[in-house]
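Progress against Task 2.4 (sequence-to-structure conversion) is shown through the following example record, which the project officer requested during the mid-term review.
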Amino acid sequence: MIRLHRRIAPLPTSARWFAIVALLLSVLVTACGGTDATVAPTAAPAATKAPTTAAPAAATTTAPTAAATTAPAVATTAPAATTAPAAASAPAGTTAPAAAATTAPAASAGSGPTKLTGAAVPLVIYAAHGAAQPMADAFTMTTGIPTKIVAESTGPLLAKVQAETNNPQWGMIWIDGAEAMASLDGQGQLLKGYTPDVPYNDLGKSLVPKTQSFVPTGATVTGALVYDTAAVKNPPATWEDLLKPEYKGMTGMNNPAISGPTYPFVAGQMQNLGGVDQGKDYFKKLKTNGLHVYTTNKVTLAALGTGEIKMAIVQSSAATAAAQKTPTLKVIYLPKVSLLPSNIGIDAKAPAQVQTEAKMFAEFVLSQKGQEIMKAADLSGDSLYYPIITGVTPLPVLPALATIPTQTVDPYVWGARVNEINQWFTENIA
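Structure tokens generated for the chain above:
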């Protein structure tokens, strides 16, 4: 029997190395979890897309930088917290500031209440509003944020803000009059691009500035004429009537350089009469006819109470309160009078945390709770206002706003001239 032997030729060296490498790769694949490990790289691109959907959540690690440059967005990214779990890719936080900057204006108008993201710091509030202190007390009790009210008339507060231009000591300011706010905005003192997510009624919507640089909180009227019916039997029917000899020495008003609510009245008169020069001529004639000039509503009404004057031109809230106390006083509105919104402005140079707290305060004022406080805090003055929030009604003592011959004074036209006109009035009329 013949046996045949086939000799198997050895593999070439290169083939042997190939077989060894293949064997090692097989072992590695098995150790790493099989085929799942081989598809992991395809998931990586999804991680790189995270900044577009979860950047706000990453801001928790970079909040100081983002808030300092895009503070308005602080108030509007709160809803994004619902996507926080998706933000596991923390490095995405490096793009958060850019995303916040481009979406801030749209988000501030409809994405819910502002949320505090860090430890509370004191909020300093410059206020010429009768509800400021009780509002601040309720705000602190609700949020835990400490507040400090610096209360003064509008004129001195604005002077204080001007003096602190390079080193502001305030976080927010709450005063009457959009013209003063527009002036501060023109100087770069107010935070832009923020409007709280609240249910403004039609009046409220009309008072929100296009720049979103200040927040309206309510409205009164400037230029209400309150007179003593025992002394004035035939009250004036127009502003021109006040120039008649029969009213000589009877009329008093505030100095607009001190009383914030008075400047919109002066500007409104100038607007009614066709311009600044025509308005100056009117006030000169009024002075010739014995106009008395005082500092504030309170002082002017005190002169009416003592009989020093018989008619007072003041803010509607002050006039209404005076008539409630003294039965012989009556309030009338000569055509036309200027609509006077109260406004909150936020310091553009304040730290991000302070700006966040100021936004929270504004939103608290415009909440149902805040509006109830406004309506009860100062029944002899600022509580007698027209609400600008849906579902909130004015106090019954107020006449319907539609029955008052009001006009709107463009705050950015007349705000630019506030210092010039106030100085002229002080030097020539007061």
